[in-house]
Every structure is written in structure tokens, then in C-alpha cells.
Amino acid sequence: MASTAASTLRQDAAFDEPRVERRAVSRSPTVAAERLPAPLLQVDGLTLEYATGVHVVRATHRVSFDLHRGDRLVLLGASGCGKSSLLKAIAGFIESREGEIRLDGRAVHGPGPDRIVVFQEFDQLPPWKTVVANVMFPLLAARLCGRREARERALDALAKVRLTEFADAYPHTLSGGMKQRVAIARALAMRPRVLLMDEPFAALDALTRRRMQEELLALWETLGFTLLFVTHSIEEALVVGNRIVVLSPRPGRVRAELNAHEFDLHGSGSAAFQAQAARIHRLLFEEAHETGDRR
Predict the structure, then answer these.
(1) Beta bridge partners of 116
(2) How far apart are CA 63 and CA 73, in angstroms?
(3) What does the pLDDT look like over 171-204, one tens digit per residue?
């Protein structure tokens, strides 16, 4: 026991705590100096590890951030930094080595209908079910409602993503973008406290990806859901998020928390957008021993 504890202490000591840059992390410029309400979701000192069969790999190290109601928070980092692992931990799919995740002040210990994930893969839809049956399925599986209400909620969600006419189609007849819209409809029909999206548009072509980003933001404007979005694209992070958590290379640590409420798809060519993108690029790819943005 003593040797194990000593080994753990030595391992933890190898990861110095970085200085985290937090600049203008309010949800809008009018509330920058105001006190925010209690967070909906809190990630507190989360360390995630996984075994490779030979040794243990640390995916994230003591990551902390808050997600408020109505936020569009983006986790941004290079491949392998642990951002998808963080999303899976928040969804309740994996356990942490240390730290805690709290939803409405209560610790998260497993999956639940209050946190729904939209994944990147197109094959997340059972091919033997119609579009409307796919959207109904989690409602029925979680016993949130009866079949009649489930169908009503499914059709309503499909209408929101403009797929009503494809309700009786099968997934193999849909394009990649349409399949992702079905996945989003399925998640929205569950009415989760937090919508989790793991690089949902990464496999789409550039034009479809832009259209999906526009549709997601339009849905958010209409419904006001709380979004946690994972991406490795700086431009997508600035467009989709109103706040961005920048993660270091593995083990992922919070390198900066930034505001992005002033940017949108139509301003991506502006000097301010490009300057912020360049600054985030420095934060992502600076040497591992550096701990902040050096201007």
C-alpha cells in the first residue's frame, strides 16, 4: 500500500499545475461584471486514465470548468488531448481517477436521460428502424413516456430539423447530413438538461458542415438548450461556442477559457475573428512547458 501511494504521489507530482488564462468568460458582454447563477454542470478537478495493457495513460489532468444554463460551451483541443474522454465522463460512460462531475449540485455516477450524446459516426442510427422509430426509441427505452407521446415528440423534433417528410424513411436512404439531423432530433426529443455533441460534423464535407453549424445555432436560438460541444477545429469552436475551453496536449489540462459570443459564421473573415483564431492556435500548439498565451 505504501509503495502504491508513493508511486501515485510521484505520478501526480509530474504534472505541474498550469496558469490558466481566464479572460471574459461571461456569457454576454452585458453580464461581464455581474454574478452568474449557480452552474448547471460543474467539472471539478477531473483526471481520467485508461489502461493500454502495458501501462496506464493519463488522458486529462485535473480539468475544471462550469457550464451554465443556455451556454454553448466548446471543448477545443488537438487529437488525443482527452476532450472526447471528458464528454464520455460527463455522459456517465467512464469513471474518473479523481475529481467530480456535478449536475445541479449532484454527483454524476452513470448515464442518464438528462445528458444525451450526439456522436460523430453516421452509423449511430439502427438501420432496421425508420427515422421516426429511431427518434422514438430512447424515449421508450428510458420509459419517459408512452408510445403515443413518444411519436408526438419524435415528429415534433423531426419538424425542428426539417425532416418531417422523411419520418418513414430508413437511414440507408439518407445523406450523411440528414443522418446527423436525425441524431440531433433524437437527442432533442429527450429534452436533456445538457446536449453533448462529440465532433458531430467532422465527417461531413465542408458545405454540409457549414449548413449543419447554421442549423444547430438556429435550433439553439429557438429552443435555448444547454450545449457542450467537442471539436478540434478552431474556426468551428469560434462559430459554435459562446465560450471555449482550450485544452493542452495529452494529458489534457485547461490552458485557457475564452469568450466567443461576438463571432458567427458571417464574420469568420473579419480581422477580429482571424486574430482570435491565431491566438487560440498559439495556445493549442505552444510548447508543453509553457502555461499561457504570451503576447
Answers:
(1) 195
(2) 15
(3) 999 999 999 999 999 999 999 999 999 999 988 8
